[in-house]
Amino acid sequence: MSPESQLDPVSSAAVRQGRNASRLHVTSLPNLLTYGRIAAVPVVVGCLYAEADIYRWCAVGLFMVAAITDFLDGYLARAWAQQSPLGRMLDPIADKLLVSACLLMLCAINTIEGWSLWAAVVILCREVLVSGLREFLAELRVSVPVTRLAKYKTTAQLIAVGFLLAGPAGDKILPGVTAVGLGLLWFSAILTLYTGYDYFRAGLRHVLEEPVE
Predict the structure, then answer these.
(1) Are 123 and 193 spatial neighbours (Cβ–Cβ below 8 Å)?
(2) Residue 210: what pLDDT?
(3) Ranges of residues in the chain whose predicted pLDDT is under 50
(4) What is the pLDDT of residue 121?
(5) Alpha helices in the chain (DSSP H)
């Protein structure tokens, strides 16, 4: 006998309704925007491999569209009451994939080099640390909400990466584009460190809790 069949008719109908709503949200516009942001990652990376200025600008344009969907998917999901567990899972993953892949490629083609490599390392290490912490806390059924400062951090990262994607191609039109991008990268790295410490401190008490026997 299934758990659902053991429920009273009203509860069973509510469970079925919730499952049907979740299935519908899989193809909702907010989730489709998130899927698109994930799909954009290999295309942006491919444009950076080409290195020609025209492909740099293609990478910038596609990245800007993907960054805009980062705002739109959450906004539309709340406005249309289409929030779902799938969307809440994929949205931060899409952000991390987009930023991390771009940072790695920008380091590979030497747009980010020298001391600025440390800013990229800080950002990448923080994302791995927080993802691992979230996974551990999820097993304990502890939720770590995204703070407003963490959202500002993500915005700063996206702007910094956008400038760096233009890089040398942007410098030919407006000198200093790469320098501005590197400055914003350091700024976002500082925010990344602070928010990472904030998350770690919030989760540490659960990690160090004595097991209940």
Answers:
(1) no
(2) 54
(3) 1-4, 7, 10-18
(4) 95
(5) 9-26, 29-50, 53-79, 85-108, 116-139, 148-173, 177-207
pLDDT digits (tens, 9 = 90+) for 67-76: 898 888 877 8
Given a contact cutoff of 8 angstroms between Cβ atoms, the answer to whether 123 and 192 are in contact is yes
Identify the burial level of 42 via C-beta atoms within 10 angstroms of its C-beta, where 0-12 means exposed, 13-18 middle and 19 or more buried: exposed
The CA angle 54-56-57, to the nearest 5 degrees, is 65
Write the single-letter amino acid at 116: S
Q: Are the beta carbons of 100 and 126 closer than 8 angstroms? A: no
Which candidate, 25, 5, 24, places its Cα nearest to that of 15? 5
Number of other residues whose CB lies within 10 A of the CB of residue 208: 7
Cα distance between residue 99 and residue 142, in whole Å = 26
pTM score of the predicted model: 0.80
Distance CA 210, CA 213 (A): 9
Mean pLDDT (the chain) is 81
Scanning the structure block, which residue is given the tokens 């909400």?
145
Exposure b/e, 55-65, CB count within 10 A at least 16 = b: bbbbbbebbee
